[in-house]
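Fold sample X.
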Amino acid sequence: MKPEARIFLWIALFCFVIAGVYAFWTDRNGGSVETAGTAALILSGGLLGISGSFFWFVSRRIDARPEDRNDAEIAEGAGELGFFSPGSYWPIAIAFGAMVTAIGMATVQYWLVGLGTLMILFTSGGLLFEYYTGNRSPLR
């Protein structure tokens, strides 16, 4: 987790430095600080700092992974990484619900936003419980 923490924290520092340079540069050329870009850079640095500090705290609490050590062998990283669905149509349905919601927001049709939100909730539940119903259920 230490490489991830370093990456996020260095990019956060870069965003903060560039925010200062950007604010100085826009103030010098235009007479006033351009607030949208400056705020975006500061907020991006803050979000990256939150992620980086999370990874840093986690890396202090867990043992070093093979990815974190320079002397690790490739075989140390072998093993099961988790379960990944070989094929599912639920993500397509979730994307369709998101599209309906976005169209409703773009056209200010609140009923369409509600319908799309319900579609997203229903299809997310379908994706979540896909392997607990029907023939794929582990309880059978």
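Fold sample Y, listed below.
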Amino acid sequence: MSGYHDNIFTKIIDGEIPFHKVYEDEHTLAFLDIGPLSKGHTLVIPKERKAALHELSDESAAAIGRVLPRLCRAVMQATGADAYNVLQNNGSAAHQAVLHVHFHIIPKYSDAGLGMTWEAGTLDDASAKRLADQMRASLGADGS
């Protein structure tokens, strides 16, 4: 998932195409989705040009983390929605259409919003221990 290429979000960041801005700071930009799943569907992007979340700098990731809850509150207040989904996909196989990190805030109403199914699997203790050990090793620490 490397090799970032210019896309619609790059053009928005560079001011080359119009958009409906909701929020902007040094590291992030939020705007209304032009193909919304529901009223108030908002996109939150880092200004850092990376395709996937794991490629972001800690600084950009922290900036998104700081602003995302505030934007969720603003979307809920402006739309009157009392439920919402935050969606973030990485890679084409995971349904990422624009290869620039972005978060969707999608208000949920009885007749609109994100529809999905969840087919939960199982995880046995031995597999869980092995997987957690591998992840901690990848982090280079005890995982704390």
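Sample Y note: Helices lie at 8-13, 58-79, 125-139.
Also: Residues 130 and 136 are 10 Å apart (CA to CA).
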